[in-house]
Amino acid sequence: MLPVALKLYAHSTISSRSFLIDQGSPIDVRLTEVQNDWSATIQNTYSESTSMSHQDRPVALITGGARGIGLGIATRLAAAGYNLVLNGIRDAGAVAEPMEQLRSLGARVEYAQGDVSQAADRNQIIDLAKARFGRLDALINNAGITSPGRKDILEADEADFDKVMGINLKGPFFLTQLAANWMKSLPAATTRRTVVFVSSISAEFVSTNRGDYCLSKSALGMATQLWATRLAEFGIDVFEVRPGVIQSDMTSGVTEKYDKLIGEGLTLERRWGTPDDVGAAVTALVTGQIPYATGQVLKIDGGMSIGRL
């Protein structure tokens, strides 16, 4: 039987209130199909993963992994048989509930509090993974912040710019450096090791009140190509996952705006994206279901980035 915690997560992830444009419409039917498909998939992978011992499980490190998109990724990977190291800036008590949700899937889960923009914290995150698991099979660079105050670029200040770049770009770049140097020294794994950069549709869509955010996400695309090129000789694949409009705490303040835009056709699939949509994509990459594709971008945006006349 699927754990109660996962049922609750599935319900909250595919809840109808926040992003259904018109209940009873084709959108409503489509979301029901998404929920049913997702529940069946997780049920199957959960049954398989519970038969694995903790020692046999691969290990994934997910920054920003205790809420939003990061939690969607963590839930999918836990159900797929991964042990997890979650990183975030909140204290351990604040993430106790999602940690227990993930453990109910059979995963061993550790929490590494830290700010990825700080070198000392990055080292501590990797040191914890080494001490608790002794291996690392996947790094998911997911942590990020939006532009503080969403200031027009004519009024943006350097302090905010440096903060966004530190967390969204410098942090994942140098955390990847640490993780990659460790990964390449480990014995060969049964599947190729993986690094994933979670960027944003803002890598290609302009927002003049979030210039620092757009720049940081665009630069992750080049970081993906750089690391894919450098790490190929070690059998480490690197990907960029580029989400569109995803229902999360980061977008909670613009729900009304995007409800309207989605209803008017902003996306081809007329619904909000969910953390689980991104989690499914990342899990497919990490588990080798999309081979021979290192360095590529996987867009999870409901067709938003397709140019139309």
Record keyword descriptors for this entry.
disordered N terminus, 309 residues, seven-stranded parallel β-sheet, 9 helices, Rossmann fold, alpha/beta, globular
The H-and-E topology, N to C, reads as HHEHEHEHEHEHEHHE
Q: For the terminal residues, how far apart are their CA atoms? A: 48 Å
Mean pLDDT: 88
Number of helices: 9
Under the CATH scheme, which class?
Alpha Beta
The CATH architecture name reads 3-Layer(aba) Sandwich
CATH superfamily: NAD(P)-binding Rossmann-like Domain
**Spatial order of strands in the largest sheet:** 3-2-1-4-5-6-7
Major sheet characteristics: 7 strands, parallel
The low-pLDDT segments are 1-35
What's the arrangement of secondary structure elements?
Elements: H1 4-13, H2 26-49, E1 59-63, H3 68-79, E2 83-88, H4 96-103, E3 109-113, H5 119-132, E4 138-141, H6 158-183, E5 193-198, H7 211-231, E6 236-243, H8 255-263, H9 275-286, E7 297-300
Parallel strand pairs: 1-2, 1-4, 2-3, 4-5, 5-6, 6-7
Helix pairs in contact: 3-4, 3-9, 5-6, 6-7
Task: Please provide a brief summary of the model.
The chain is α/β, with parallel strands linked by helices. It has helices spanning 4-13, 26-49, 68-79, 96-103, 119-132, 158-183, 211-231, 255-263, 275-286; strands at residues 59-63, 83-88, 109-113, 138-141, 193-198, 236-243, 297-300.
Explain what this protein looks like in three dimensions.
This protein has 309 residues and is of the alpha/beta class. It has a single domain (4-144, 153-300), classed as 3-Layer(aba) Sandwich (Rossmann fold). The protein is built from 9 helices and 7 strands, in the order ααβαβαβαβαβαβααβ. The chain has helices at 4-13, 26-49, 68-79, 96-103, 119-132, 158-183, 211-231, 255-263, 275-286, and strands at 59-63, 83-88, 109-113, 138-141, 193-198, 236-243, 297-300. The chain has a 7-stranded parallel beta sheet, sandwiched between helices. It is globular and about 50 Å long. 44% of the residues are buried. The model is unreliable at 1-35 (pLDDT under 50).
